[in-house]
């Protein structure tokens, strides 16, 4: 008997990326049961097995071809790539999609009392970070010589603890920096989450499963960005209404019962409908204007 074809996808087991990774897979019709203790979750609705690991392990698993796919932040991915390149280990992967979540930036920050006059102020200083290679690459590019101190957690307390003069850490709102008396100075890397694929050649059946998954991901993304707009418009104003609606070159125009003076117009718009546009439509005599989210879409 031949092995059934199944994909393997590494996702973060628990942390900032887990919930959204799972949510996205579910939106693509991939159902599974997660058990706290289990490393692997088999999907019952798509031939895919999820490997649930620490996010730091995901780039290596993909680059070594242990799994077919991975969902991981670009910060972790790029740091792993630089580290593996230095060590002359496999460091390549194929980037499939940006997944539009997990946004953060890797920034240099210094204690509020530090007289920061630009990145040059970090010459000969100690910088605590979980991302030494990204940090060093940036400093090198800026012609700054500084020493990085690797810390895997609590980076923001390093200056106060006397371990470093500055830090290079992930920021999303800046609240953690502020709470620790630090001020953000230079953004060195902007990150979001990516779906990546191993460069190990796959049998056609597996590649077509990946392609089908990508189509579904694109459908989810497109739906997220789109709105379904319905309204009643004066029949004589259909052209003008269509010119105001975003992305409505060819609206569906339907007759209304018991009147010729008004029609119903339906539009799938790739932009949101702002209040100002709705007010403009109302001035043209439109009524019953509805803007609805779309759950799924396929072109
Ligand atoms: P693990 O136990 O899996 O190693 P972790 O503690 O390293 O988890 P998380 O804090 O869960 O990692 O963050 C995972 C990823 O979330 C980060 O690598 C980054 O890509 C993204 N992220 C988004 N916003 C932030 C933020 N404000 N701080 C840290 N990471 C963020
Ligand atoms: Mg981690």
Automatic annotation (TrEMBL):
Source organism superkingdom: Bacteria
Keyword terms, alphabetized: Amino-acid biosynthesis, ATP-binding, Cytoplasm, Glycosyltransferase, Histidine biosynthesis, Magnesium, Metal-binding, Nucleotide-binding, Transferase
Pfam family, one: HisG
GO biological process: L-histidine biosynthetic process
Regulation: Feedback inhibited by histidine.
Gene3D superfamilies in alphabetical order: 3.30.70.120, Periplasmic binding protein-like II
MF (Gene Ontology): ATP binding; ATP phosphoribosyltransferase activity; magnesium ion binding
Cofactor(s) essential for the protein: Mg(2+)
Entry-linked InterPro entries: ATP-PRT_HisG_long (IPR020621), ATP_PRibTrfase_cat (IPR013820), ATP_PRibTrfase_CS (IPR018198), ATP_PRibTrfase_HisG (IPR001348), HisG_C (IPR013115), N-reg_PII-like_a/b (IPR011322), N-reg_PII/ATP_PRibTrfase_C (IPR015867)
UniProt domain ATP phosphoribosyltransferase catalytic: residue ranges: 54-218
PROSITE patterns for this protein: ATP_P_PHORIBOSYLTR (PS01316)
EC number: 2.4.2.17
Transmembrane portions of the chain: none
GO cellular component: cytoplasm
Pathways involved: Amino-acid biosynthesis; L-histidine biosynthesis; L-histidine from 5-phospho-alpha-D-ribose 1-diphosphate: step 1/9
Catalytic activity: 1-(5-phospho-beta-D-ribosyl)-ATP + diphosphate = 5-phospho-alpha-D-ribose 1-diphosphate + ATP
Histidine biosynthesis HisG C-terminal domain boundaries: 223-296
Compartment list: Cytoplasm
Record's keyword annotation contains Ligase: no
UniProt similarity note: Belongs to the ATP phosphoribosyltransferase family. Long subfamily.
Functional note: Catalyzes the condensation of ATP and 5-phosphoribose 1-diphosphate to form N'-(5'-phosphoribosyl)-ATP (PR-ATP). Has a crucial role in the pathway because the rate of histidine biosynthesis seems to be controlled primarily by regulation of HisG enzymatic activity.
Protein name stated in the entry: ATP phosphoribosyltransferase
